[in-house]
Amino acid sequence: MDKFKRIWATKNPDDEWWSSFVTSPLAVVGNWFVVDIAWITPNLLTLFSFIVALASAVFICLGSLDESQRISFHIAAAILIHVSHILDCMDGQMARCRGTLSRSGSFFDKATDHLQVFIWFGAIAYAGYIHAHQDVTPIFLAFIGVSFYALRGYVKYVTIHSEMERDKEYLTATARTSAALQKQFDELGGLGKSLGNNLAWFLKEQEKLFNFDEGVFVFMLSLALIIPSTLIPMLWVFAVSQSFWGIIRCCQRGQQLAHDQRPDPPKIPDK
């Protein structure tokens, strides 16, 4: 039990919606089995996650080509998407548990995360194109969605770069914010907390659904693969939500940078 608690403590309090109460807890269970196996490294888990994501995209395309096997291929793809995301959660947990966090590992993880979102929605756009009898609307919606999703990530990292040029302690302050989130997470729910506390935590986590980030994508993609009638509506939700958040994040980051570059007001000397 001590080992499980130690791994659970590495669970990211800022996990995305579906990750928070599905894939991340499953990742804790997975790490219980492998965290002490020396040759299994966080970077290896990241690589496995990406390979499984590629396999899921292949299954999506195969199911679109063979109507008789569509259901089987697409259910397999939905399962593989979840396996990929569980592995994606496991790598960070393992690195934190072992104390081996690294900048190169973080870069590898984030780069593959973004790339697999493009691959998943490229595959699902192709499936939608076939399902809609070669209507290009699904391809257009997926293109809009991934473009604005990329914009969200781009403005985030441009902001970090700009803030670091202004304040070398910017990331330290961000780390303190993360620590405060961890404290709130520990106080609200988790192992050893009451059913009421964990229910309150679960209800609060539902707010993250409206962030429409990678954790939500895992759920949306799986639902569209299992229930084909939701595929086109899902792509509309994806395109609209990413357009909305892409524009909002651009405005927010721009305002943040404009505010932070203002000089401090002159001090009025005491009379």
General description of the model:
It is a single chain. The protein is mostly helical and 271 residues long. It has one domain: CDP-alcohol phosphotransferase transmembrane (TM) domain (Four Helix Bundle (Hemerythrin (Met), subunit A), Up-down Bundle). It is 77% helix and 0% strand. Helix 2 crosses helix 9 (214-226) and helix 3 (42-65) packs antiparallel against helix 4. The termini are far apart.
Radius of gyration: 21 Å
Count of domain modules: 1
Oligomer: single chain
Bin the helical content: over 70%
> What share of residues are in beta strands?
under 5%
Using brief descriptors, characterize the structure shown.
271 residues; mainly alpha; Four Helix Bundle (Hemerythrin (Met), subunit A)
